[in-house]
């Protein structure tokens, strides 16, 4: 399955379908039953179609552009994809990765036992990064007797979105990077605008930490400092700073208490002119801007020792920057209510940040919830990558992996596996490559090569990893054409 592509129906010159070899007919029959679609009136190649764009390309061939998705248009693309997937008969899935094998002895071979092959693929999925996710919903159109394809390319980059999570590390294999560059993969877009993600396991871990912080009351808005006990004031600069803050806070607090009507209009200032009254949750407050982290700790110490009615509060703005305030609260009951509101807001803010950090995993969750048939070519590694990046650590055995992945994607079809287990097709292909182009040339020879004389055939278009489409006669992911299986 390619990362993304545009396909069009191919209509033969002769309206009468030619007689197919028995093995080809058997293979087509299996594919039709698998896809649960009405049998096409022409060759299998005629079942692949896409709606044309408003205009033709520069070469006179029409096609539908692959939708390129980055973090800038993820929300819009996800909304569109949700409807496409719900209508789809099946969904094509493919990944582009930073590498395949970390050492020669970790290459997979046909004679490998299933458990050995899984361990090799697990090592690959854990070490290399997923750089692009290709998702292509196919919808059967009875009126056209064709599948309508809607290809999407999602650029991926695992940047650190949350302070509670560690930074990602991954390997790069030079042959894989060179191959992606050859097919015009846009590394700048990937690294600069790629969509980050949180796996389900990471999300659960972060939410547990957040809930513990909330329950323990140790959030950033707490009135207690992060350190244990008070800091000893040994430096003259610290002593002078704390005394100046004590005077300024007392002046501001006394002005509020003595002139309650004035603070409602925000007109109270200290004589030093450093503080101006603002409001926080209907209470007078002052912003603490321009102070270092050490000075903020000293301020908290001053408030805790000298002012029972002044509270240090730290919140986060819309741009995720922290905002520090000193808030006036005249009673203990009001203080408790204020801190409860602050902690609730902080919890909601952190949960929203976690939801935003889920990123590209929303696509995987969508495919899982819709329980559609997932189709790929030699997709064992792709599925292992999906599990490792978007679900959690890969299980230790292939049996556990099969049980776990079945809960996420209950229906998976690997076209390479279908070619391998079908004896008739295996006999026809003999020692040929198991790539999609080889299979297509065998099963659909009329659509695999351009005719020598003018005809009404419309070529199939393929797009691999870049912003431009590339014409080709086969439907295959580029990595499979390179022999990466």
TrEMBL record:
Compositionally biased residues, Polar residues: 1-13
Cofactor list: a divalent metal cation
Chain residue ranges for the region called Disordered: 1-23, 41-64
InterPro entries: CAF1_poly(A)_ribonucleases, RNase_CAF1, RNaseH-like_sf, RNaseH_sf
Pfam family, one: CAF1
Coiled-coil spans in chain: none
Domain of life: Eukaryota
Entry similarity comment: Belongs to the CAF1 family.
Protein name (Swiss-Prot/TrEMBL): Uncharacterized protein
């Amino acid at each position: 399955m390619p990362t993304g592509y545009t396909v069009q129906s191919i209509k033969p010159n002769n309206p009468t379908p030619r007689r197919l070899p028995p093995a080809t007919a058997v293979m087509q029959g299996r594919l039709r039953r698998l896809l649960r679609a009405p049998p096409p009136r022409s060759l299998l190649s005629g079942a692949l179609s896409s709606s044309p764009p408003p205009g033709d390309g520069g070469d006179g061939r029409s096609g539908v552009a692959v939708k390129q998705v980055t973090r800038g248009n993820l929300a819009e693309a996800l909304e569109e994809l949700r409807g496409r997937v719900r209508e789809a008969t099946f969904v094509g899935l493919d990944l582009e990765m930073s590498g395949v094998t970390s050492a020669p002895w970790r290459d997979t071979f046909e004679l490998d036992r299933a458990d050995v092959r899984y361990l090799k693929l697990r090592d690959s999925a854990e070490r290399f990064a997923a750089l692009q996710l290709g998702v292509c919903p196919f919808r059967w159109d009875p009126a056209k007797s064709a599948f309508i394809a809607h290809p999407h390319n999602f650029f991926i980059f695992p940047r650190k979105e949350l302070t509670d999570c560690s930074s990602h590390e991954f390997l790069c294999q030079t042959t894989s990077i060179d191959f992606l560059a050859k097919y015009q993969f846009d590394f700048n877009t990937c690294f600069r605008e790629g969509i980050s993600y949180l796996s389900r396991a990471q999300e659960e871990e972060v939410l547990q930490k957040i809930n513990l912080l909330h329950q323990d009351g140790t959030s950033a808005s707490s009135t207690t400092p992060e350190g244990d006990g008070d800091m000893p004031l040994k430096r003259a600069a610290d002593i002078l700073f704390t005394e100046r803050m004590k005077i300024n806070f007392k002046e501001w607090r006394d002005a509020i208490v003595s002139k309650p009507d004035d603070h409602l209009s925000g007109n109270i200032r200290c004589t030093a002119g450093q503080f101006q009254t603002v409001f926080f949750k209907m209470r007078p407050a002052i912003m603490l801007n321009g102070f270092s982290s050490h000075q903020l700790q000293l301020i908290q110490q001053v408030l805790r020792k000298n002012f029972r009615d002044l509270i240090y509060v730290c919140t986060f703005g819309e741009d995720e920057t922290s905002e520090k305030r000193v808030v006036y609260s005249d009673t203990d009951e009001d203080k408790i209510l204020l801190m409860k509101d602050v902690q609730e807001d902080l919890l909601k803010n952190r949960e929203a940040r976690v939801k935003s950090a889920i990123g590209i995993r929303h696509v995987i969750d969508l495919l899982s919830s819709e329980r559609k048939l997932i189709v790929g070519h030699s997709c064992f590694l792709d599925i292992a990558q999906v599990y490792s990046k978007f679900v959690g650590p890969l299980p230790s055995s292939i049996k556990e992996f099969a049980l776990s992945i079945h809960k996420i994607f209950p229906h998976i079809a690997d076209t390479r596996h279908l070619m391998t287990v079908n004896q008739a097709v295996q006999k026809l292909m003999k020692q040929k490559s198991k790539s999609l182009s080889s299979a297509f040339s065998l099963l659909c020879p009329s659509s695999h090569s351009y005719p020598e004389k003018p005809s009404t055939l419309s070529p199939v278009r393929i797009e691999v990893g870049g912003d431009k489409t590339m014409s080709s006669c086969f439907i295959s992911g580029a990595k499979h054409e390179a022999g990466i299986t």
